[in-house]
Design a protein that fits this description.
The complex is a heterodimer of chains A (305) and B (234). Chain A is mostly helical. Chain A contains 11 helices and 4 strands, in the order H-H-H-H-E-E-E-H-H-H-H-E-H-H-H. Chain A has a domain of 212 residues. Classes of the chains: A mainly alpha (305), B alpha/beta (234). Chain B: InterPro entries: AAA+_ATPase, ABC_branched_ATPase_LivF/BraG, ABC_transporter-like_ATP-bd, ABC_transporter-like_CS, BCAA_Transport_ATP-bd_LivF, P-loop_NTPase.
Chain lengths: 305, 234
Amino acid sequence: MDTFVQQLINGLTIGSIYALIALGYTMVYGILRLINFAHGDIYMVGAYAGFILATSLGFAANPSAFGFVVTLVGAMAIAAGIGMAIERFAYRPVRKFSKMTTLITAIGMSLLIEYLFVFIFSGTPRSFPQLITNDNYTLFGNATISTSQILIFVVSILLMILLQYIIFYTKIGKAMRAVSFNLNSAKLMGINTNFVIAFTFALGSALAAAGGVLTAQYNPKIEPLMGIITGLKAFVAAVLGGIGNIPGAVLGGLLIGAAETLVVGYGSAIGIPSTYRDAVAFAILILVLLVRPAGLLGSNVQEKV
Amino acid sequence: MLTLENVSVNYGAIEALTDISLTVNQGEVVTLIGANGAGKTTTLRTITSLLEPRIGRVMFEGKEISAIPTHKLLPMGIAMSPEGRGVFANLTVRENLEMGAYIRKDKKGIADDMERGFTLFPRLKEREKQKAGTLSGGEQQMVAMARAMMSRPRLLLLDEPSLGLAPLLVHTIFEAIDEIRAEGTTILLVEQNANAALHHSDRAYVLETGRIVMEGDSKQLAADPRVKEAYLGE
């Protein structure tokens, strides 16, 4: 029982990160029907942006809540800018071409970001400074939860509430929903759809960057290719929940995270070695595509890229 | 107010509109009638810059608008209720109307115009908080028209507002067109229902396979034997 609770806590921790990243995949898909394969790399960019901010502003030497917040918000802002730049200069010029063209552009963008970062920062992992004092708290039994885990839960939930507010109660959020439903009708309403699309990229990128900084507090090793596998799992999470569906992305993320750690905890008992943890998400992906291609919360079968 | 000068439009290699010239004057209701595939919707999509003319130009109040992006036409005073209604099914009726007022900032004016929309179509008031996707075709058409009116346009483009509606609803929609016109909005109405369109308009153009084949006073066209035979089923 203790192991179960412990694995669940750990699973929901990484699941929250998957959820934050999955939101970006799902929002961009909802609005452009594009799988933005470079999105996982934005998570990495966010972690590096946080790393640079934390070290250059001296937060690394003096851990404080203030330093953490500045690093988090700063990294989110930088990633938002980079996300908008990618949309403007890579995706917008090819938007009117076929889906295949945009998809290849996205894959190319992903590789470009990864190896640009290898070039600038080298492939050697860096250690992200601890910005908060990381304590362990014992829950019932022997299960523990760390400060960084609590931070991940709290910040993720706050960001998701904020996102929900933006999408449902602000003018730009309503415009996002309008654009995702019918681009041309939105244009006829005088909505600058290019701006709305750019804003969607900014929002998704900021959430992924938050995921990057939060993860780095939990597991401080950052490297330029860290976004590949995490990004893929977050993508699977978005598909599991029903791509284009926002609550689905959150649900998918939490489920993938939990499934992954439960395999680590219990897999060996049923003959699945814990080293298969990364395979879980993809096994789930295959199952979803076979059984319920629209995803758990997706209403109808969506157009595929 | 609106003029199309020798406009030709292509879909790839296929010419969809050939040498279209038409005029809509301030205060008029002008209708464009024709069979399916004659180019009626293409004409409206060209006026709203969703398509680009290969030759010719679109002028609005003396200014060429052919190259102006779609979203900048609404602030100039052109609104459209598009083909197939184009309502935002995932938004409530109220939110759809709010989208129609997207470019406006005057909260009071927006609230007044929303009330005006609900007066025009009382049914929408009852459905205010419902997702537009759950409405009937006729109600969705009401949303599309009320939404287009939320920007207080000077020119309203209507694309087949009566398509697929029961006769009673067709009547409601055309009454609303009369009312909108009475408030001083100029209307370009594209219709397959030639009978109703000719009775609720001042002038008409008849479109056949991308060309204007007849034009004139709506009453005269309604009495024209060729129009009667081809479009009024007499």
